Structure formats: C-alpha cells, structure tokens
Amino acid sequence: MRKSLLAAIGLGLLAGVFAPAPVQAQSDFKVTLLGTASPSPRPTRFGPSTLIEAGDQKFIIDAGRGVPIRLWQLKVPMGKIDVLFITHYHSDHVSGIPDLWLTGWLSPPFGQRKTPFHVIGPTGAKSLMENLEKAYAADIKIRIADEKLPAEGAAVKVEEFDKDGVVYEKNGVKVIAFTNHHGDLIHPSVGYRIEYKGHAAVISGDTTYNENVIKYGTGADLLIHEVGMARPKLMKIPAVQRIIAHHTPPEEAGKVFAQAKPKLAAYTHIVFLSNAQIPERTLEDLVAETRKTYSGPLEVGEDLTAFEIGDTVTVQRFKK
Ligand SMILES: [Zn+2]
Ligand SMILES: [Zn+2]
Q1: How far, in Å, from the CA of 183 to the mean position of ligand 2?
Q2: 144 half-sphere exposure, CB direction, 13 A CA radius
Q3: Which ligand is nearest to the CA of 226?
Q4: Which of 32, 203, 262, 264 could form a disulfide with 220 if both were Cys (CB 3.0 to 4.6 A apart)?
Q5: pLDDT tens for residues 53-96?
Q6: Cis omega before residue 188 (within 30°)?
C-alpha cells in the first residue's frame, strides 16, 4: 500500500500532478503604516509614520501625531523600537517624537526602554533632539528621582548625515537615505530604502515628482509614495497652490510607479485639501488619477495597513 502510494506520488510528480503548492514562508520583513495623513487632524488617519520590522529589529520612519497609540494597537512596545529615522523637519513628521521617546521610557509594559533613544536623520537631527532634551528636562529629572527610572533610557543617541548613502547597517538590515525634492526652501528632505534578505522597501518621504525616488525605488518589493490633490476650484487659492506644489499629484506618482516597477506600489501621507465650501477629493479620484499613468499593483494605505515582504508582497488591513 505504502509502496504503491509512493509510486503513485512519484508518477504524479513526474506528471506534475502532485507538485506541491508553493508555500509562502512566513516573512520576517514587514512594513506597517502607523499614520497616513498630512498635518490635517483626522480621527482615522494619524500623522506620518511607518513601522519597519526586519528580523529582530524594529524601526520607525518619522514620528507624527499618535505613534504611541498605533504601536499600542499593534502590541509593539514603544521601548522596543531600535531606531527612529527622520525624513525632514516639518512638524507633522516629528511632533510625535517626545511622546515616543519619553512614554517609551516609562515603566509599564508599553515602555521600559533602558537604553538611549536612537535617532538617525539628515542635518538638523542633533539640534532637534538637543532642544527636546532641554524642553523635557524637568520631566526627565522628576521621573529619575521619583519613579527611579534609569537615566540611560531617557538619554538620546543621534546620528546625522549630510549626503546620500548607507546610514545604518546591522544584522542584515541596510538603510539607505536619498535626497528627494520637497520644495526649494525645504532642505534637507530625504526618502529611505530599507534592504533586508534580498528584498527592499522604499519610502519616498515628502516630495514632488523626483528621479531619485525612481532610482532608489527601482526593483523594490514595496514602494510607498506620498501624494497630494485638491479640486481645481480650491487650487485657485494661493495657499493651496503652495501646499500642493510641495507634493506629488497622483498622475505623477503613477509615473514614478510605472518607471520604478515595484512589486507593489502604495500610498501614504495623503494630502487632501478642502475648505468650508469646497470638499476634498475622494480616494476613488486618487486611484482614477493614478490609473492614467500606472496600471500595476496599487494599494491606498490606511493607518495600520501592513505589508509582508517575502517572495510576494501581501497586504493586511487592520482588524480591531
Ligand atoms: Zn508631511
Ligand atoms: Zn513635509
């Protein structure tokens, strides 16, 4: 019986009948959007921030509004973040830093960081963190004396860079920073390419259409791009024009995707402007405009949308 079954399997394999179905090994490279908005306050979309998990390391790219809440939903302790990478110094990308840094130091299970808070960013990171240390000096002093928290956990380790290239390399993870173009007066501003086990995830940062995003995004498994749009009537307002000019319209983001050809393209940092009279554009508009220039795989990110990167890129929407 056993012999004939084996023979049958052997024949089946020869015939291709019993060829095993491809099993997707569980990936240990995962990207989760923590916040997908721009500065506009929204209950469903928090400030820009992305969590990267690669092997036993966890990174955050930008810390906008609400990062600790999103991490709590994922059951990822704030104290377990290895490095915070900053793309640029607009407040919506850094306003969550004190919360992540200091709440991550507290003694409950969501915190417990006992080593310095590690920050890597373009020129300006040192000044930002030094000034935050001054701003929160009283809290740090009080909690060390009162709660007996370890001083080392409130310390800050900052690395600054001023050119494109590898800014972090450890345990098989390589992080490469590249200059993008967010606006003539917005310097520095970068995107990041994260490489792990032959795969890559790329985050555009805040940028207009930019060749560097195509260059570093080419061959990526996942290319996450920012995007901005407003109704033509609203675009007559100079302040709206100035904001939209700092971002990438969906048709142009589509051109970036079409050239970089990632396995999956995704949107985050969705800039939708409106006023009391003129409503914002819709997510359907966003997709329709993108489809004028790009026909490949596309996901419009929501807060806590997760991408697992392995042989393929799989998408998981957050279930409460
Ligand atoms: Zn922004
Ligand atoms: Zn910005």
Answers
A1: 9
A2: 13
A3: 1
A4: 262
A5: 999 999 999 999 999 999 999 999 999 999 999 999 999 999 99
A6: yes
Question: What gap in Å lies between CA 66 and CA 49, rounded to an integer?
Answer: 9
What does the longest C-alpha to C-alpha distance in the chain come to?
A: 81
Which runs of consecutive H residues, i.e. helices, occur in the chain? 2-15, 67-74, 91-94, 97-98, 125-135, 137-146, 151-154, 211-217, 238-244, 250-260, 283-290
The SS3 assignment for 138 reads helix
Residue located via tokens 């507290």: 106
Q: How far apart are CA 184 and CA 122, in angstroms?
A: 16
**How far apart are the C-alpha atoms of 186 and 286, rounded to whole Å?**
25
Ligand 2: centre distance to CA 11 (Å): 61
Whether 140 contacts 150, CB under 8 Å: no
Q: What is the Å distance from ligand 2's center to 206 Cα?
A: 5
For the chain, the straight-line distance linking the first and the last C-alpha, in angstroms and rounded, comes to: 49
pLDDT in tens, 100-139: 999 999 999 999 999 999 999 999 999 999 999 999 999 9
With bands split at pLDDT 50, 70 and 90, how would you rate the model's confidence at 320? Answer: confident
**Residue 48 in tokens:** 């820009």
Q: Report the predicted TM-score, pTM, of the whole model to 2 decimal places.
A: 0.92
Cα of 263 from ligand 1 centre, angstroms? 25
Centroid of ligand 2 to alpha carbon of 127 (angstroms): 18
Q: Give the Å distance between the CA of 165 and the centre of ligand 2.
A: 21
Beta partners for residue 83, in sequence order: 59
DSSP label at residue 153:
H
Q: State residue 83 phi and psi, 5-degree precision.
A: -145, 140
| Ligand of minimum distance to the alpha carbon of 207 | 2
Q: Is 98 helix (H, G, I), strand (E, B) or coil?
A: helix
